[in-house]
Amino acid sequence: MKENVHQQLPSGLEYGVTPLPDRHVVSFQLRILAGMASEPPRTLGLARLVEETLDKGTEAYTAQGLADAFDAIGAGRQSGTGRETMTFTCTVLPEHFERALELHAELLRRPKFPDEAVAVNVQLGKQELVALDDDAHGLVDKLITRQAYGPVAGRHQLGEHETLERITRTDLENYWRTHFCSGRIIAAVAGGIEPRRVADALTRHFDGFGSSRREGRGALPIEFNPKTTHHDKALEQEHIAICWPGVDATHDEFPVQQVTLGILSGGMSGRLFTEVREKRGLVYWVSAWQETPRGAGMVFLGASTTPDRCAKTYTTLLHEVDRLAEDITQDELDRAVTGIVANQETRGDTTRSRCAELASDLFFFGRPVPIEEKVAKVQAVTIEDIRRYLTLHPRNRLCVITLGPRPMVGLDAPAVKAMGGIGR
Description:
The protein is of the alpha+beta class. The protein folds into two domains: 5-206, Cytochrome Bc1 Complex, Chain A, domain 1; 228-423, 2-Layer Sandwich (Cytochrome Bc1 Complex, Chain A, domain 1), CATH 3.30.830. Helices cover 45% and strands 18% of the residues. The protein is built from 16 helices and twelve strands. The strands form two sheets. Strands 1-2-6-3-5-4 form a six-stranded mixed beta sheet. The chain has a six-stranded mixed beta sheet with strand order 9-10-8-11-7-12, sandwiched between helices. Helix 12 packs antiparallel against helix 14. The longest helix is centred in the first third of the chain and has 18 residues, at 115-132. It is globular, with a radius of gyration of 23 Å.
């Protein structure tokens, strides 16, 4: 396999290429360094509306004409809005790469934001907010994110009913004019293509696209709020989410955090599943995961239980994390490492996954990171590393959300203290 290429073009656009000569497809991702955190506070939900309206008509194409042009080359594409970025991903045959990139340049550089399309997408956003209110898992995720990250980094992509109501076509156009330019684009390409072709196509289609200054690369302001909040909702189940600060993706201890979460929640052999669900029967769903916005990291526990078992579930979840430092076994460590490595080297080895991995590397590290380097760091994690990590990152400042018919009751004093007090 040829080595990764990583360069910055005179336009300010940064790109990386992972050549995979044996692949008969090419995947690329254009990552715009602007997302929900870039929205004006009065128009939350704006970034996602921009993303969803970009392809609804451009200077050269109607919405249907653009869709037909993509279909004519068999392009598989998708887009998304996050707190820090918007992403536009496409997979095509190598012979159609330049055409697919040309069409993406068209929708990114010359959108029209038709009034009718804007109105339709605003109404769809409102409907999704209504649907979110009936999705307990999604609602808990929204609530814990806002409390854990604060009013900027903790925004939800759908915004709020009152903020969507204010959004006009002018707001979309202003957001686009402010944040869309070559200096805010990271491009990642993987597959059967020569890096020179990639550089030539990116130069041809993005030269002269706004500012060449490399902007949007700073860490977001995080306002961690260590307290417990209950949200009343008429449900049969009680949903719990717990969060505390971890490490970011570039930290030396990130592989240790990965393995720790793998032991806790790495499939049906994970401790949370076996100890909390299978042995005690406290929950019907339980998981642990991490989020790593640039410059920060958060560790999450989540579970769904009955109102009567909510407090017991809460204390058991935290007990299982604490217990790792006492009785972790080499078998557990090896199993978690094997799962992470297998995911990296097999399930994560599709062309589209390699492209997404490269885009994340450029975003977080500012360079391509070889898979071998990541695997070696995970394989080097020891039991002592995990014990040290758990000691250095205690669970004494917790952000907790409960959603259901009533707050947790029956907690002992140490548990309440760890939660930082109970509020409504």
